# Entry
Amino acid sequence: IILYVTCAFIREFEEISIKNIKSINKKRKKQSKFIVGGCLPSINPSRLRYMNDLEIFPLRKPEKIDRLVKSEVEIQEVPDPNITEFEKRYHTGKKINIHYSKYREEYENAKRGYKIRLNYGCLGNCTYCVTRLATKDLESKPIKIVINEFKRAIVKKANTIFLTGGDTGAYGLDIDFNIAKLLEKMLGIDGNYKLYFHDFGIQWFIKFFDDLLPLFENNERKFGLLNFPIQSGSNKILKLMRRPYKIDDVIENLSYLNYKLPTVHFGTHIIVGFPGETEEDFQKTLDLLDKVNFSFLYIFKYSDNPLADSYKLIAKVEESIKEERLNMLLIKYLKKTKKNN
# Structure
């Protein structure tokens, strides 16, 4: 049995997945069973339709695996793994353009430690996103299960606990709960650990700021790093992206966190070259780095995808300009990092 887990959140990664599937298909033994999973079968199933002898299972329908491998224990009965080898394996994708500051390295190392998945999916409807075609609507893990996994981490003496999910900040909003209430429960449990957050929607940080801030203040040493994907410093571009917040609110809350708790560090995602992004819009993203102290960055060039709503937007940005803006953003960040250090 060959199981290949795909990634298709941008076209480049989709093409890498297709290339690898074709290569494996040519080399595998005829009697082998080739199963393709991940997000590609849900995002763009037409790419797999004419490939011979493939079995596929959508990301949110893992129960199909039971039939394919004739499992004795149904996959739905198998709990999420808290420690995986995936991040330690060889990756075929291109390295994402990030600056490896000491905080970025710390964040990457935390990914390789104890993990708790809080949810699948999100409540967003971003125009550039095709991942939601696979991850679907928000589905939070039951509170009791999350807390039990958290207690297990403490028993195992895990010094880093990486909270992951489609949008960790949206945890509980589908089950009449929220991330602040969850953190209050977690932080009430004694242990020597630091919490790290994957993709915490900034709109939820803003919404629950008054509840979150006291938790940060009273448990400062228990927070590692947080990742708040912001994407742009321009309200015009955020609106085109269908990102549900204003940049002034982002700056107000994060700059206050910088001021009040300078030892709590966080990073962000930025997309350059989104359709309609002018020099003025990009300058506002550069200005964002002056107003908020980010400890690490993910920088993406906008990737046009026919399946995304943003594909229909006009005023596309040339590839050379995207590359130029990416480099300008990275240089500015590096200069600021050097100055702060």
In short: The chain is about 40% helix and 15% strand. The first helix runs from residue 11 to 27.
